[in-house]
Here is the input.
Amino acid sequence: KIEQVLKDSLRSGTSVCLICIDSVKKSDFIWSCTKCYCSLHLTCIQRWAKDSIYFQTEAASDHLAPGQHVDPRKFNWCCPKCRAEYPQATIPTRYYCYCLKTQDPQFDPWLVPHSCGAKCEKLLQPECKHTCLLLCHPGPCPPCPQTVSVTCFCAKSPVETRRCSSQTWSCGKKCSKLLSCKEHKCEVTCHSGACPPCPKKSSQKCLCGSKKEERPCHSIEFQCDKVCGKMLDCRHHKCEAVCHPGKCATCPLALPRTCPCGKKAVTVACTVEVGGCGDTCGKLLECGIHECAERCHKGKCGTCWQMRVQSCRCGLKKKELPCYKEFQCETKCKHIKDCRRHPCNRKCCTGTCPPCDQICNRPLGCKNHKCVSRCHQGPCYPCDLTVDITCSCGRTKITVPCGREKHTKPPKCSLPCTKPPDCHHESRTKHICHSGGCPPCKQPCLKVSERCGHICKAPCHTSVLVQISAPTQQRAGPWEPKQAPKMEIKKLPCPPCPVPVPVTCLGEHETADWPCHLSAPSSCGRPCGRELYCTNHTCMKPCHAVATNPRNCQLCEELCSKNRPEGCTHPCARKCHPGPCPTCTKLIKHSCHCGLNPQLIRCNELSDSIAPGSLPSREQLLSCKDRCPKLLPCKHRCPVSCHSGDCASQLDCVTTVHVSCPCKRIKKAVACNLLSKQAAVSCDDICRRKKDQELKLKEEKERVQREEEERRNRIELEQFQRKFDKRRNKDHR
Here is the structure.
């Protein structure tokens, strides 16, 4: 898979050099890393390796004392992609094919770029003494396809025929080999290499035998922290070694020793201290030029105080100073540093000016960042940062070198678009992620019309791209550009409702289906045909709206032609009208039964009384309603109202005659025809008591009325007095 990817990138020209961030062409001289197999320009990797070694050398020299130097040959360089280290001897100087057998291979369009076309013949990995049989190719060689007969790691399983690349295998059984402790066996499953240390523990003694502890079985020997302390053979000193086996060593002071200056060797007892030999010390002092002039002595030699003429580090001035002092002049170095931009300016410089320690701070090729390396000569390295370019939803991304994000298209994303809808719908129609605005929503509007209450089924029009015409203003001249129409996203109202709605014409003659937005009632053109207000004729106007109150049909202008009631000779005074004609209210003069009062009777009442059983009857209608003026034999007037015919007899007189006791409490009403049969009425005890009580109540009532009258007078007097006092006080102020 790696080989195929490399071949495709080389053939298509999409392979990029990570140093110069430029495409690796099919005819370019390249170098291929043996670890990550990336292809880089030969000149770029040479400069990269040399700069890498130079910067490592300069960084190491910053930590050394003056006068010391760093050997640059000990530093390695690394691949800019995988950071695999290579020695300096492997810095490429020539252009080779992938199998490293052909120098400067020629480009062949029928072969993989930078391939020689011969067999690879590299040793396969892991090394099995077989070679790669493929043609010269980029990337790693495939696993060895040869077959071999091998057994497992522990050699307990029978021999099997396997691929050479997977010839080492485990049978899964216990190893059971004897471990290094010579007591236990390996319990690990069949494995490669040496058996691991014995994991079991045992009680073991230290080397001196004074301490015993539980320790892993594989580490038999161990030292405790106890000093031996045994008396040495000299019987004067004790052993200062820590926990050791066997006999203590000879006393170190009994061996041959020298004087402090090292010129005279003596062998004396260990109790005798070796003193100075009396000769000059002669050891080389720290200055490295003069020797110590003191007698043989112990300890460190002193400082060199001899005077000598010393040159400064830059060699421009000389001065006589004690040897231990270093002479530095005040002259500033005028050499240009390795960056070829800044002067050294170091006092008394030795000529090996240090690298420039300022920050380069030049803009990098990415145009986004500045170089943060130390100031250097030549072009800066490309920006090592990367930028993630994401799709619109942010879930698919690609990583490109910094600076290419402006020219790199966003990656194609196959995931659903997650942009929120810009219309009133809860979600958009499902579509894949894309750049720019989402396509117009094609879902049905489904809004409920406020006018008609129907659901709008037109395509969504909440967010629609509408062309706005340019303002029609007269240009100042032909040089002034014409204003082009603009496109804006606007919210459009719902289109006219097309739902068929049954509509009845104004006159309610027919009902037909019309679109909802045209569902206003209209005239069908037929005659109205409604019954006029008179209920005798119909409206002849063309179909029109009819109001319930008042109705707007035409008015009937004809006279009333209905028949008059029996006995009425007067014509109807109204025009054509609904219902029966109004009653004839003209008055007719007629005498009553008694002949005393002439009656003015309406025509309708007189004509209605002719019919039998009508109310009022003709007898009642011609009666003047007064009492009959005629007297009965009992001298009472006839009790009947004005009537026709003879009056009633005395036995029919029912005039009430009141009969009472002397105090008038007991009263009785007796009809006139029964008066002769009724006895006289006399007072009783109740009448007498009642007479007394009425007298007392009358007196009490008069007393209460007097008191109430006095109280009202008193209140009125007080109110008047207060009002008078208030006015008087106001006048005094």
